[in-house]
Write a structure and sequence with these properties.
This protein is mainly α. The chain is 72% helix and 2% strand. Helix 2 runs antiparallel to helix 3, helix 4 packs antiparallel against helix 5 and helix 6 packs antiparallel against helix 8.
Length: 206
């Protein structure tokens, strides 16, 4: 019940209604309206509340049947959907995660199909990242920025922590891939050295 009340108070319809109601009071105290000032103020509040749309949470979860190219397109769409709906710091972290994901998606075939890294990459793109953003977007923006939820932290701060956690894990997996690439380069270099150390090998093909 308390949470519902707070969501109502922080909600855009209530804020707009209060602003219009305060504007009506301002007109009364300025002497512009006299008779029926109270119904006018109440009407302004009600009108503001009614005409202000409540944010409708658009589902951000992606289909688990998506292939690599479809995942790429869906991540681009995810960024487009949240671009005007989240603060700059949340958008920047989300974009950083998607850049790392997009870098790794073409490499998914190199993992064992049942590997932990494959699962984490796909789940981050399909579930973990969209779900974190969805849980934030259903909250009124003022509530998310101002009201403490856990250990004195707001929804905004908690989401930043969750995004940093996802970002760190994606970077860790990407670093593993880069180390594997570097190792393969070193192995191939040693192979070439062994094969062509003797200049005659170029001629004989031995």
């Amino acid at each position: 019940m308390k949470r519902r009340l707070l969501l109502f108070l922080y909600g855009a319809p209530n804020i707009v209604g209060c602003l219009l109601g305060l504007a009506g009071l301002g007109l009364y105290f300025a002497g512009i309206i006299h008779d029926y000032w109270l119904p006018i103020v109440v009407g302004l509040y009600a009108g503001g509340w009614l005409v202000t749309p409540c944010p409708i949470g658009q589902p951000l979860r992606l289909s688990h049947e998506l292939d690599t190219e479809a995942l790429r397109a869906s991540l681009d769409e995810l960024i487009a959907l949240i671009r005007r709906r989240v603060p700059a710091d949340i958008l920047a972290r989300t974009e950083r995660i998607t850049v790392t994901l997009l870098e790794m998606l073409p490499r998914l075939g190199e993992f064992d199909g049942g590997s932990h890294n494959t699962h984490v990459i796909r789940q981050t793109a399909l579930d973990y990242l969209p779900a974190a953003l969805q849980n934030y977007l259903v909250l009124p923006s003022a509530f998310a920025r101002l009201h403490p939820l856990q250990d004195g932290k707001t929804a905004h701060q908690l989401l930043l922590e969750q995004l940093d956690l996802l970002d760190g894990k994606m970077r860790e997996i990407a670093a593993d891939l880069h180390r594997q690439d570097s190792q393969q380069l070193l192995i191939h270099g040693r192979f070439l050295e062994d094969k062509f150390r003797n200049g005659q090998a170029w001629l004989t093909g031995g």
